[in-house]
Amino acid sequence: MLRSLVAVCCLWGFSTAWAQTPPPVEWQRNLGGSVDELGTSIEPTNDGGYILCGTTFSNNGDVSGNHGNGDIWVVKLSTTGSLQWQRCLGGSQPENGIKALQLSGGGYLVLGSTRSDDGDVIGNHGALDFWLTRLDNNGNLLSQRCYGGSLNDSPADINQTPDGGFIVVGASRSVDGALNTNAGSTDYWVLKLDDNFDIQWQRTFGGSGGETAFGVTLTLDAGYLVNGTSSTRDGDVSGAFGLEDYWVLKLDTQGNVQWQRACGGSASDYGVAVSELSDGSIFAMGFSDSENEDVSAPLGLNDIWTIRLSSGGQVIGDQTYGGSNLDSGSDQFQTSDGGFIYCGSTKSNDGDIPNNQGLFDGWIFRTDAEGNILWNVTKGGSQSDSFLKITGTNDGGYIAIGQSSSSDGDLIGNHGGGDVWIVKFAVDPVGVSENGQPTALSLYPNPCAGTLYISLPILQGFPVSWQVIDAQGKLAAAGTLVGSTNEVDASALKPGAYNFLLRAGTRQLAMPFVKEETSGW
């Protein structure tokens, strides 16, 4: 079989002479007012624009309608970054924006935290609650719900589930309200909601120390992966190494633990994101200042650290990226060639860092499937600038969001303090055929509504795995092709842009396609 796969790779004619130039910047935008803003999420929308979420303390400039003490700020941008509408959500106490999602049925879902019980907020349980709001297509508030107990409960991530509901993660200190257990200090808190925001199930996980969940992703077996940080050596946590470890949980569809893994060394390791690959293995990322145990090749004071686990949670390998100073990772998504795009911030000016213009620069880099850096780029000015999230766009480029305090270097138009900072990158030159010739792979119809037909005559009966990756780099479907012509049911995919990938060995072949709206959606 290995010889057959090699033959297929040769027939596909993959080029090993990849371009190493980062994609150019198409546009960038500073948004905010005279005080401070922070951008925490950005997602493409069906109209080619973007929905972003963050926090604002201003009530001037681009911001209007602030309720006081910090509001969740939701902004809709056009394809070219023009502001179409903005909405402040909150009450008289502080709120923080976490993530905004466009819903398949229209409108937007916004996750944040709240201490208020007035203004837009109804039903706060105590000090700090998870807060979900639903907006219409123009940003008007339709409904809202608070989740928590009498102590601090802080959200971190949310994703829509195939049944139209949502999976939400964060940290909790409470033992009342919606919660009935706490192992000590803060625990992971995982909630499964239906499409009306009602709790279907909720679970807490942890030990006598502190645990904070930062990222959740859906798995192909209808379960969930959760990544975050743990400072515990008891309770639900086993195999811990140091002060703080990555703590990865694999849950089944009902939230039961199938396995857990603490990853790290004797110092502090902070897990922030997690992804499942088509073979069932897992990539977890964050940042680390450990120099032993799972961390095999430390570079400086603090590095971006990735670790690959088997489908059962065993360590396969790890990789560190950075320089001699402070480097931190905040987000990742998988690219069509099996590699990853990472973003974060850096204070280094050596090692993997091409240059640094100030205190901290935003840092983005791309790796191949083996973890080798294909290109990397820093952006910033003389002050502190960072990227917090990055995702793919419908045109094949990337868009990153974070915060900028600079008004020089790569930055223009700072409104005061820290601004929400958005950078749109053009189509990535890495992976584009040097001679521009099409491959033998064909997909039709494109756009498709239901069945997608895949034709690749050179397969000649060799089984080759496939996967569908959405515009945010997330795995949407996977399977195996056998024979030169195959059918794939795409009816369950949400409308939008996707990449169809064929994998043989370590090589991949990709072709974009569009899933169009169908009647009844």
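Next protein, fold it too.
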Amino acid sequence: MLVEFGELIEYRLPEFPPTPLCALNVSREVYDSLVVEIRGVIHFFPGIRRWAPELAVACTLSVGLMKGAAAPAPGAPDPPTFHIDCSAGIDGDGSLQHPWNNLASAEAHEFAPDDTIAIARGSVCNGEFAPKGSGTEGHIIRLTAYGVGDRPKISALSNARPALLLFNQQYWQVDSLDIAGGSKYGVFVTGDTGVLHHVYLKNLYVHDVYGGALKNKDNGLVIVGPSSVNVFFDDVLIDGVDAAHTNQWAGILVGGGNFPYKDGAPRNTNIQIRNSTVHDVYGDGIVLFRDSHSSIRNSAAWLTGMEPTQDVGTPSAIWTWTCDTCVVDDNEAYLTDTPGVDGGAYDIDWNNQHNSIERNYAHDTQGYCISVFAAGYATGDSLVKDNLCIDNGQSPRLAVLQGAIFLSTWNGGTIRSLIISGNEIHWNPPVPGAAAIEGPADVGGTPIVFTGNTVESTSPFIYRIKKPWQSSDNRFILDGQPVFAIGDENGLSLEALLVQGVDSSSTIVEAEKPKQEEVVRLEAWINPALDEGGLLSDTVRSQLVAIRSLAGQYSPDRLKIVVHLLASGQNQLEPNALRDLDSVYPGALHFVHDAQSPQVSPEAGVIRIQSSDGRVLREWHGFQNAATLGGAVRKLLGPPDYSHMQPLEHHEGQP
């Protein structure tokens, strides 16, 4: 019997198993894995492309859950899958029936293109892991999980440098693992020569990396970076990675390299970080160093900059340096800190070109919402657009120094062709006289454009900047009259700016206090589609990461969140995907399996906020980012109480 892709076939017997009844041939051209439910127990067989009659049993069979690997040529042998189950009592040969029971046995094997290494869910493998081999274009090596349950855990000793290492290797995907321990790195992908292609890290929980004193920034939880000046990376994807708890520097860092690069040296290319989170780190959250045509999207960082004393630098949550054509979109950063300066949410740092920061949410930070810096070089063609900044500058010292928007140059650097447009800034500094925008930056004769922004401030001081500066169509919301400083001129009114031609068409609006609710309910209807690897699809994960972050910020007594899963239960890997998502805030999201959504197709999705008496307060269709959802809930409930966050306590491996 030929099974079509995605088809469900059911055989049920009063007794098990009197005779083989499930004898199926699975199309070699289509399938990469099978999931079989036998008497209520789900069994996952990655890499199996033919269901042999001698393995036939009474079963419910769902096939085609990992379509996408390159199909072998007709008559070619099936690519092998090697299994590791560290709970097995006897070390085997890596087969499904006789898996390896330790990481060392797997390390002794050199893996080849199209190989799969699968670790049993629910098992714990002690020690660091450095598998060997590389894939080729279109024929990757995949390190993943099999079975049902919690992600398999690799637990490295405290004296191991990395918990997971790939060195001079390429065309790898690592997914669906819990990786803990190591003294300098959790996951370290590095090399010393050439260009390394296609490194995909997906659906990982990387945590508890505790080591010695910091000497540079090239260390932390997830690091993809060089071990010499002669190596670069192309096509790196970090998707759905949750990284937490370290006294090393970074949460997620791609690039870096503490080497004397020459001007014009190649950069890493096509780096994507998305749907990922970082929290409880000594230094930076998520950063791109020396990259081009790269992005950080739909991610979140909080409790960054937790180092008690400054040594190797000053941290921010999400930022880029020496980056060409790099994008930071639809992210969230909050509760950022620093032992020195910075301590902000987003930063276009020096020697960046063609960078943008758009549609991000930054709130309750010790430092700035957004900064643009230049030092020694020109930082050019930057865009800061449609961001939401609320209650930044919580540190009195940093509020006065930086404001919510901080523009600064030194060592001969200049900021050229910067546009600040459509942002919403709520400025409530803890000290009087702090300006919302601090711009003591040299701009090299090219005016900074400040247009279409809304600044709501409890301080009358709106901005302190240098010329040339061109302001237009902004709204200043406050009690009383705003004041401005331009160069050596202080205490300027908006009328004076209009007369000078520094501003045009900007207006003053009287502040209003919004009506708030005691309790609200947020419901989201989502189709939990999986990708061809059996993981949550990009669109689904993006939305759930934004909702999950919001759930962590408010007590469930104030914000009740329910996620309705449409067309759910048709894929046997869905429980694993949802369980893996639950790592950061266990139980924060309440899932309900629904047949259909209210008046929308499952593909469209809907998110709705209701009052305690059932009134619809907000409703959206399609993807909504953290700024939209977080801003709406904050208007209704006020500032977060952060009562559902992971407690700051002693963690695994922490000295």
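About the second fold: The first strand starts at residue 2 and ends at 3.
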